[in-house]
Design brief:
Elements lengths: L1 E4 L7 H9 L7 H20 L4 E8 L2 E8 L3 E7 L3 H10 L4 E11 L7 E9 L7 E5 L2 E2 L3 H10 L7 E10 H10 L4 E9 L1 E2 L5 E2 L5 H6 L6
Parallel strand pairs: 1-10, 4-5, 4-7, 7-9, 8-9, 9-10
Antiparallel strand pairs: 2-3, 5-6, 11-12
Length: 220
């Protein structure tokens, strides 16, 4: 797996990620979602540099101009619900892309709350054969969700390329998916934190991106 860590070189991306982490700014739910959306746009620009381009002639009112334009047939798949603002940011740039949505969540063991399984339920997806799949999930903690989702998408076809997009990851999770996925998969990530706590949440991370975006949910 190829890892592209966008905060290895300082940029305006650092501002948006630091605001996502800031407990006082997180209280502004609309700003939290907007920052994720803006980060999605930054990821889109950087990711676009790795796509296939073809020279096409555009007719202007005064003549013709040859431009190098991307040719990939893109499907953006978001993991519900936290992935929705990131999905919008990606779709703002890849506006001709198809969309897929999948629900994946942790089902904790009631007797041992620190252990859990990933439950994949709702899934709506187009044909993925030969497509460029962009899988969006803001937080990459253990990496189990990404592996489970990719497994659930297998019946929908074989993508030509797979790009994973996460804002913050934990080193153990990044290491885990690196060992599970082939070299032609790309991970685009904004920051890699060193550890997980005893409930497998990223430290320092930012908390629960889904709750911060859309409100707390009842635990079942």
């Amino acid at each position: 797996m190829k890892i592209h860590n966008l905060t290895e070189k300082p940029s305006i991306l650092n501002t948006f990620i630091s605001e996502l982490r800031d407990a006082s700014i997180q209280k502004d739910r609309m700003r939290f979602r907007k920052n994720i959306e803006r980060i999605g746009e930054i990821f889109s620009y950087e990711l676009s540099k790795s796509l296939a381009f073809e020279r096409k002639v555009v007719t202007t009112p005064l003549g013709n101009h040859a431009s190098e334009l991307p040719q990939n047939n893109i499907v953006i798949c978001s993991i519900l619900r936290a992935g929705l603002p990131l999905h919008i940011g990606l779709l703002n740039y890849f506006d001709r892309a198809d969309s897929a949505f999948i629900s994946a969540y942790r089902k904790h063991n009631q007797d041992q709350p620190s252990t859990f399984k990933i439950k994949v339920e709702y899934l709506a997806c187009p044909n993925l054969n030969g497509k460029t799949l962009i899988l969006a999930d803001p937080m990459l903690a253990t990496g189990q969700s990404i592996i489970s989702v990719l497994k659930a998408l297998e019946p929908y076809g074989m993508p030509e390329e797979i790009h994973l997009v996460s804002i913050i990851g934990a080193l153990p999770g990044v290491t885990y998916i690196s060992e599970q996925l082939p070299q032609n998969v790309h991970l685009w990530i904004g920051a890699i934190d060193k550890e997980l706590n005893n409930r497998s949440y990223i430290v320092p991370g930012l908390g629960d991106a889904g709750d911060l975006s859309f409100g707390e949910k009842l635990q079942q």
